[in-house]
Input
Amino acid sequence: MSEVDSKFNIRDYLREHMFPHFLCPGCGHGIALRALLWAIDELEIPKDKLAFVSGIGCSGRLGAYIDSNTFHVTHGRPLAFATGLKLARPDLEVIVITGDGDCLAIGGNHLIHACRRNLNITCMMLNNEVYGMTGGQVSPTTSSNRFTTTTPHGNYEPVFDACKLAEAAGAGMVGREITLQTPALKNVLKEGLSHNGFSFVEVMSDCTEVFGRKNELGDSAEMVLTQKSSVRPDGYDNTVEQPFRPNFLKTGVMARNDRPEYAAAYRQHIMSMKEG
Amino acid sequence: MSDLSEPRLLNLEGNHACALGAIAAGCRFYAGYPITPSSEIAERMSKELPGVDGIFIQMEDEIASMGAILGASMGGMKVMTATSGPGFSLKQENLGYAAGAEIPCVVVNVMRGGPSTGLPTRPAQGDIMQARWGTHGDHPIIVITPASVPEIYEQTIRAFNLAETLRVPVIILYDEAIGHLRETVEIKDSNSIEINNRIWASEVTDSFQPYAAGEDKIPEMVRPGDGFRTHTTGLTHAPDGFPTQDPELVSQYMDRLLGKLGHHGDLVEGYETIEVEDAELLVVSYGITSRAARRAIKLARAEGIKVGMFRPITLWPFPAEAFKEIIAPIKNVLVPEMNAGQLIEEIERYRPEGCDIEGLNRIDGETITPEQILDRIRELAANE
Output
């Protein structure tokens, strides 16, 4: 059966009474959410056993549309909240939905320590290069020279590579995909959900209405095609300057690390202490 | 690890009494970050929790500790974190989330001198207003101010009971001096301790609304995994849990949120009075300062001065109704505080005509002595 013939029906996972949704036309976030729910469907994880934790920003609002246990918490803190929730309730499949500002700026400290601990949580970071909800300010992933409302003369700040950061901090699994390649994105998310440890998946999303318009990047179709030309499944290339990103970005599963999962290590530590 | 179930007398420092009180109350999740002078609470929790199948985690910062306890609380555990001044400032963001989304939690602030890094190892009572209004927006919060080590133990148990039954963050506020003071604490048989637990929603129906409350204004809690699949948000929400900006629904939410503690006033209120029946002069005091005041009042009474004391144990919401009756016949009120004058602002609100209210303040990192209070009581009595 091909990917397109999947029995997956997104409506089984949505709170349709919340529609119409608030995302702008052309926004990549909805596609990312579809890929995530598709991955969950293929893994046959029951809706009652899922818990979605999201922060603030466009990414943070996605949880409200999912027919599951959803927590919309404070800006930058979904990983901290998810850490407590997962430790208290190891029976739940805890998924964090976050954005480049939420996860890498205000929540950056929580990200590196979540990677270091390696608690079994899947973190999907939607990277649209901008603070969309507040009107389009520069973020830690805004490409060089791009215009935003707080870089009216072009962005002069260096860009974070979130996946390299997550890998260096010790994440159990690291992956990246673009929304245009939805089945591939679904597969990367499946790997993340299946991995027993902290999984970090960066989704290259697109903000057509705010970021795209400001930088004259064309419509959504044009933006995702440009995006496709800037990624390669075969690895980093820091030598070629690209118009959209400072260099080629690798996609697919980029790192896997089978070191002990935090909660299991904690339980083992306590057991040995009680016996000792 | 200690055997925590055996009734006995223990000589404990205040911070350890807080940890043992939390465990007696059923706290099984603690997330913290090191900060003087509260670190002994985290240390004791890290030692004791594994023995009762609890979870201790030292997080990457104060904000994460607060976030983690809220996640664990929504997962179904009784939770606590502890901190001091600078850390308490960082807790405020998620304290607001706890107040708005009605997540039970207990937060300890062992007060040290401020502002900023201030006097890390010296006592102060400078966070009285921050404890009430530290997070933005109108919100409910309970603040408890124990004055002794045994009271820290008892009031920590009470803090959990209030947090769980009223779905509200509860702050335990005491200063460095009590935190590091050693006194004898009676550890009671666990069967003789009153423990209150949150109410879990049990019936999944199509019309279920997670933030709809009955007459008691407290919605039942939803345990993830039980089939309710509800939404929790810090955005202003309707009874169905989803965000709303409808003025009518916003008012309904805010009225219930801000009214719920008053509705349960009997549970929330807590104060002590000493010799107020015939008093002409009243000392209003709390925490470590109230112990100096207690001694001063005893000595002043021996000299024939008609002086009494009002000691709020629940500092916020302030026990206004009880206090109004007590202050009504009083000519002079003295409010000793280890700050530049914070609770006195609240006391002024209840000032009867002809009553003089003054502060006795110390902000040098030292405690107020009984002599300081006694001297001022004598002067006030002589001027009458």
